[in-house]
Amino acid sequence: MPVSVTLPVRLFIFVSAMMMLEGCAILQQKSKAPLQEGVYKMKVDRSVTRVYVDMTQDSVKIYPLVMKHHDLVADSVLYRVYLFPAEMTRFQEKKTFYQPTMDIDVLTIPFKFRPATAGFPPQFNSNLNGAFYYGRRVDYYTVSYDRNPLGHYLKSTKHFAYGYGIFAGLGSTAINEYVTNNQVNVQYDGLVFTKGFAGIVGIGHLTFGIALGFDNLLDKNYALWYYQGKPWIGLTIGLNLN
After folding, report:
1. Residue 41 lies in a domain
2. Which domain holds residue 126?
3. pLDDT by residue (tens digit) across 4-19?
4. Is residue 65 over pLDDT 80?
5. What number of other Cβ atoms are within 10 A of residue 61's Cβ?
6. What is residue 51's predicted lDDT score, i.e. its pLDDT?
7. b or e along 160-183 (b: 16 or more beta carbons within 10 Å of the residue's beta carbon)?
8. What is the pLDDT, as a whole number, of residue 26?
9. Maximum Cα interatomic distance, the chain, rounded to a whole number of Å
């Protein structure tokens, strides 16, 4: 019994760690699309303010946003220009811009870990799942210079995003005598409605995260299924739609 209980937990932790490490490696090697023109937040004179960022090849123009006629407009007089050529011969302070948005993703949940219930050992499932995710996301863009072995400073734009939200969708699960206390004498893949909460990390247009979810079997055997409405923990992989 100890082996059956601990093995799924160890396997889940191992797979989670490998996916997170791979995601971090991708993040270090390749950022999202470069910083683009738009509305961001940034720290100006030790205070956080909303600004409009106008990008050119070698510079960033920062326009403070002011309220006029119940609308935010860029102040074309009080703006700052930061030069960011591709290469510098001296160190230049980095600039960080961040952009809070509402996020819509399509998720798949490749792995689910279900705790023990009704005397049944923990389960590590890899059934097909698909869901829509809606939540809050914050994207960070940092423009900085990295020193190479020749002593030159090369421009680098790094991107990182995180978010949290809710999801809902459909999936499948194995239904048989083992997960129904021998009250179902057939084996089949049952359709489940899956929903819950997720925390995500954005890497390009992809997202990776951890979810806390609940499944409801959508057929007549729902009351017999051990895991009906019981919590599970899973990994998510998503595609950002907006």
Report:
1. no
2. 2-33+91-240
3. 334 444 544 444 444 4
4. yes
5. 17
6. 87
7. bbebebebebebbbebeeebbeee
8. 43
9. 77
Give the burial class of 201: count Cβ atoms within 10 A of its Cβ; 0-12 exposed, 13-18 middle, 19 or more buried: middle
Q: β-pairing, 59-68 with 71-74?
A: antiparallel
Residue type, 5: V
Q: Look at residue 119 and tell me if it is in a domain.
A: yes
- Residue carrying structure tokens 């023109």: 37
Strands 188-203 and 206-217: antiparallel
Cα(223)–Cα(231) distance, rounded to whole angstroms? Answer: 16
The tally of domains found in the chain comes to 1
Q: Sort 140 into a burial class: Cβ within 10 Å, 0-12 / 13-18 / 19+.
A: middle
- The verdict on residue 186 lying in a domain is yes
Contact 133, 107 (CB under 8 A): yes
Q: Give 57's DSSP letter.
A: S
Burial of 4 (0-12, 13-18, 19+ CB in 10 A): exposed
Give the number of C-alpha atoms closer than 13 A to the C-alpha of residue 205, restricted to the C-beta side.
Answer: 6
Task: List alpha helices for 72-147, DSSP H.
Answer: none
